[in-house]
Amino acid sequence: MKNLWPEEFKPKEIKSVKLILDEQSNLLPKITGDMVYAKVKTMGVSEAYRTDHANDFSYSFYLLAKFLEEYSFKVLDFSHPVTMYPVKVTLDELIADEIQCNREIEINDENEFISILGTVLNSDRIKDVVGSIIRLSSEQ
User: Fold this and answer.
1) Which of 5, 87, 94, 103 could bridge across to 80 with cysteines, CB 3.0–4.6 Å?
2) Is 39 helix (H, G, I), strand (E, B) or coil?
3) Inside any domain, residue 1
4) 136: how many CB neighbours lie within 10 A of its CB?
5) pLDDT digits (tens, 9 = 90+) for 122-132
6) Quick check: is 100 in a domain?
7) What is the pLDDT of residue 95?
């Protein structure tokens, strides 16, 4: 039988949202004296449905404290199809209010995601949460 597939496949030349958040996660401990770190966690099926993120890939992005083992702060949930974009993002309610956008947003490409993420990570809400985590961790 004749091969009906293309002669070759090339990987897409874009970064996934998960990779972008993983890269940002690696930077956070360096600027917080290893007191605060961030992590992307894969959602289970039931959580994905409960949070309205039932998609091919569903995740949450958390801030965590080195010395506060039981504490985590959810910055956002996100999900996307295998094609990576568009990505559906659900922000922390106070962050969405502060940056004056809807809590649930659809992002169509990598550049748009990076722009929105920069606004989120520089929000007063994130600065307040990270500063509080640092203070509480230093008291442990």
Assistant:
1) 87
2) strand
3) no
4) 14
5) 999 999 999 99
6) yes
7) 97
What is d(CA 33, CA 117) in angstroms, rounded to the nearest whole number? Answer: 22
Whole-Å CA distances, 92 to 11, 28, 30, 60, 77: 32, 19, 24, 11, 9
Burial of 103 (0-12, 13-18, 19+ CB in 10 A): middle
| Residue count (the chain) | 140
- In the chain, the number of structural domains is 1
* DSSP helix/strand/coil, 82: coil
Out of 54-63, 70-79, 94-103, which region has the weakest mean confidence (pLDDT)?
54-63
Query: Does pTM top 0.85 for this prediction?
Result: yes
- Write out pLDDT tens, residues 86-133: 999 999 999 999 999 999 999 999 999 999 999 999 999 999 999 999
Residue 132, domain extent: 17-138
Query: Within a domain: residue 29?
Result: yes
The pLDDT tens digits of the residues spanning 32-57 come to 999 999 999 998 888 877 887 777 88
- Give which of 103, 87, 9, 23 is closest to 55, Cα–Cα: 87
Contact 103, 7 (CB under 8 A): no
